[in-house]
């Protein structure tokens, strides 16, 4: 699929180095929740390196285990939609893909906390019970190079993911969108918010909001059913 100066395609193993570079520069420490947790913890350079190493491992696992999508420009890969495919716990192996991409003992309080909140949001969305589907695809991370934003790339990456899921008879796609910009891209691609979560609900042991000062405190769980596309 081509859109303007960009081509949207599925990933290949050779894309890994460029995708890692893209995520390091435009997602790991830019995604609103993780960014604020890092700032709150006042991470050191060593801790930043550990977070990068763990996040790189997650991206490798995703690319090896899922069909993902990239936006390619003459300069290389400038956007990515990294996906996860999970199964209903009551069907088959009940694979929880989100749990599978994080180490059980991450040696990083920030990653451990970040994973905890993502899992809680997924649990609260309760999508398998809500939609009674056997499997679903999550758009885990949609990232676009800073120099190529506001050109509709995120929307096209999401749209390609929805179309692919439809063609594979995956009945439901969803994403946890933590910025107004990514949420709008998902809306334009036909996704609908079914759950809004106020991050200020999460409190520390003193009762203070964990995400105090986050630029956008509302997280949107957005979905698209594919059966009628």
UniProtKB/TrEMBL annotation:
Database matches in SUPFAM superfamilies: Acyl-CoA N-acyltransferases (Nat)
PROSITE patterns: GNAT
GO MF terms held by the record: N-acetyltransferase activity
Segments forming domain N-acetyltransferase: 6-229
Signal sequence extent: none
Name used for this protein in its record: N-acetyltransferase domain-containing protein
Pfam families: Acetyltransf_1 (PF00583)
UniProt cross-references to Gene3D superfamilies, sorted A to Z: 3.40.630.30
InterPro entries on file: Acyl_CoA_acyltransferase, GNAT_dom
């Amino acid at each position: 699929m081509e859109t303007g100066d960009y081509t949207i395609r599925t990933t290949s193993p050779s894309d890994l180095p460029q995708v890692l570079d893209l995520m390091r520069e435009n997602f790991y420490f830019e995604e609103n929740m993780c960014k604020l947790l890092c700032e709150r913890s006042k991470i050191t350079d060593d801790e930043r390196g550990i977070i990068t190493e763990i996040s790189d491992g997650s991206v490798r696992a995703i690319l090896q285990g899922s069909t993902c999508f990239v936006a390619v420009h003459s300069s290389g890969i400038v956007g990515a939609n990294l996906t996860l495919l999970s199964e209903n716990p009551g069907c088959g192996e009940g694979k929880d893909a989100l749990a599978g991409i994080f180490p059980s003992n991450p040696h990083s309080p920030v990653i451990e906390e970040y994973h905890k909140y993502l899992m809680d949001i997924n649990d609260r969305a309760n999508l398998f019970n809500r939609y009674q589907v056997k499997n679903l695809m999550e758009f885990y991370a949609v990232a676009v190079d800073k120099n190529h934003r506001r050109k509709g790339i995120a929307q096209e990456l999401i749209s390609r993911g929805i179309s692919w899921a439809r063609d594979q008879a995956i009945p439901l796609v969803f994403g946890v969108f933590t910025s107004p910009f990514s949420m709008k891209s998902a809306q334009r691609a036909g996704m609908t918010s079914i759950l809004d979560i106020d991050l200020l609900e999460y409190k520390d042991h003193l009762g203070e909001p964990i995400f105090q000062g986050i630029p956008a405190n509302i997280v949107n769980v957005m979905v698209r059913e594919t059966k009628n596309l």
